[in-house]
Amino acid sequence: MSPQTHAGLDYSKVDEILANYGYEKSNLIAILQKVQEVFRYLPLDVMTYIGTKIEGLSPATVYGVATFYAQFSLEPKGKYEIKVCDGTACHVRGSMPVLNAVYQCLNPVVVVNGKVYPQMTADAIKIVIATIMNEEEGK
Amino acid sequence: MSDKKTLIINGKEVEFTDEPNLLEVIRKAGFNVPTFCYRPDLTQYGACRMCVVEVEYPNGRVLINSSCTMPPETGIKVKTNTERTRRIRKTVLELLLANHDRECTTCDKSGKCELQQYAEEYGIKDVSKYVAKRKEDFLPIDDSNPSIVRDPNKCILCGACVRACSEFQGHSVLGFANRGSKTVVQPIAGKPLAKVDCVYCGQCQAVCPTGALTIKNEVNEVWNLITDPQKKVLAQIAPSVRVAIGEEFGLEPGENTIKLVNAALKEIGFDLVFDTNFSADLTIMEEAHEFVERLSKGENLPLFTSCCPAWVRYLELQHPDMLKHLSSCKSPQGMLSPVLRTLVPKYFEGFSEENINIVSIMPCTAKKAEAKRSQLGKDGKFETDYVLTTQELAKMIKSAGIDFKSLEPAEGDSPFALYSGAATIFGASGGVAEAAVRTAYEFVTGEPLSDIDIKSMRGVDKNHRCKDVELDIKGTKVKVRVVSTLKEAEKSLQEIKNGTSDFHMLEVMACPGGCINGGGQPRSCDDTHVKEKRAQGLYKEDSELTYRRSNDNPDIKKLYAEYLEAPGSHKAHELLHTVYEDKFKGSYKDVVKA
Ligand code: SF4
Ligand code: SF4
Ligand code: SF4
Ligand code: FES
């Protein structure tokens, strides 16, 4: 199995990205962009990891760069981002029914310790939780 | 000498040589400009604009420049105090104050805060023209850390702490986050300062101009002990305190005030006053014994010194695989407390194991955390009850209305009063190794070391953060490395891991220059020479003392004869040695699932 963070993220790709950019402090922004492409956001674990791997940086300083630029997201994001405008004009013209329709079409996404489960249903979440509980007991 | 370089400051011709920036030239010439973000031992940052000066170039152009980032140039005319520079500084101050939690009276930095000082000097009376930060936007104060308190509402974003942590300790625990009006300086993701890889050295706090980072103050707790008639309170005083506390009372850095400190502690109400120097001698007896043993067996070399708790914590967090190198000796603070608890009741009437409380006076914020190590106590009761930093003791002395300078000098209490010169130099980087070698030489050869001053181990400035010394112990070559700052220590660790190191002993002090420059010492971040003067104060005392080697100290001999038997004995191990803990779990490097 490839190496994983505590949150269960495969970070062998992070090593690859770091190596491609020569573990250089000056490449941090490019590194974070690539990492965000892989995970669709910047997990805290991964920022911490990068902070310990690049000379002259620290977890706190990597976090600082990630929070400085609006292009980086610290929250998990989906593949498609749907925005429904609910400004006054749109609201009057029926944005709420549209939003409800979106909810009906898409089952919710559940995130467990950074791992994303799309299209969740009431039955599926029971299985996910049961699996985790089994793992914990087995420890 | 080539032609000399000069410039004009406020109409006065001033010579300069290799000063890194104009500000240093200005200060050398006897003028001053205010600064927040400039600290001579850190890289220049140029963010606060307080140090602006008016510079007239030979071609007649006049520019406003921040003097801390500008190199000195021949032929320029500098004015440090003009209408324009004053106006800029006032605006900076007004903006900062509008955004500041201005509760000065209850702030721990009050009286020492540079923001407060300059606001007063520049006559800032009203900041109502700027939008003030609202109380409901204040962020919570973080006092989770055993040594440092962080109050983000007092932060002026000068970045000095971030640079100190990164340039001294190698990984900046604190960093800038967010942008614009939301910018803060904080541990990663705003985590509590106790839940990150902070080693409690307090260097961030030592360079912070405001009350945003302060020492965790335990003065009230100590007053409570002292005023409780049921309790006997013992003090122990670390080497570096004596050459620094005088600065709080107008004395020169380096002036040895140990007898005044003894007197002040008695005056405050401590029942007995002891010297951590005594247990520094004890540390050397045990550590030299341990070193000689490891040398002869070729085991767990290099030996790492263990008296700096910031260093110990660093290894526990980041390099638990290297803990076997660490000497098992407790620090001098850690050794003296159990010795006093065990032996004071035998020597002094009215003192019992139950009523003894111990307060140590340290240059160090990390010692507060060390005292609370589970290994140094049992059942929730610790061998050292409280640790006060030099700064806190100075506050106590002032609040007791004691006129420090005119106290009648007093001796410490016997039989643990005598100490050697080897003990007193513990406070400076290189001192522990020098002391250890003085005794180890004699343990190996049976003869006293003749060249007792090992000058190559000394030096506390920026250029002496890594010192390699080779010694000849009757034909055996022994290599000692001395480092200060964990950034330097990390390099040595990497050498050991790569198999390229060849030293047998590694002395580490986390603070640049050693404990004389510890996080609990009086503020000196504006003057890089203060630590050198303090170190000279210690070396001077060493040269004047009757005994210069720990193994010559008669009180130490007596303690071994009457109680401890011999260095490394079973009894010595019980009282004076300790074990370490793998704290890797949850640390920065613990990202990978096993
Ligand atoms: S106490 Fe030391 S390690 Fe902790 S944040 Fe401050 S400088 Fe860094
Ligand atoms: S905490 Fe202090 S040193 Fe750090 S940025 Fe804020 S004001 Fe400056
Ligand atoms: S060098 Fe000295 S003052 Fe600094 S953390 Fe270590 S023991 Fe404390
Ligand atoms: S001290 Fe020069 S810019 Fe801050």
What does this structure look like?
The complex is a heterodimer of chains A (139) and B (594). With 139 residues, chain A is mainly alpha-helical. Chain A has helices at residues 12-20, 28-39, 44-53, 59-68, 88-92, 95-105, 122-138, and strands at 110-112, 115-117. In chain A, helix 3 crosses helix 4 (59-68). Chain B has 594 residues and is α/β, with parallel strands linked by helices. Chain B folds into 3 domains: 5-81, Roll (Ubiquitin-like (UB roll)); 91-131 and 138-215, Alpha-Beta Plaits, CATH 3.30.70.20; 232-576, Fe-only Hydrogenase (Larger Subunit), Chain L, domain 3 (3-Layer(aba) Sandwich). Helix content of chain B is 33%, strand content 14%. Chain B has helices at 22-28, 83-98, 114-121, 160-169, 203-207, 219-227, 258-268, 276-297, 309-318, 332-347, 366-371, 390-399, 421-424, 431-445, 486-498, 530-544, 554-564, 570-576, and strands at residues 5-9, 12-16, 52-56, 62-66, 77-79, 148-150, 174-177, 184-187, 213-215, 232-237, 272-275, 303-304, 356-362, 377-378, 381-382, 386-389, 466-473, 476-484, 505-509. In chain B, helix 8 crosses helix 10 (332-347). Chain B is globular and about 75 Å long. Chains A and B meet through helix 3 and helix 4 of A and helix 4 and strand 7 of B. The complex binds iron/sulfur cluster (3 copies) and FE2/S2 (inorganic) cluster.
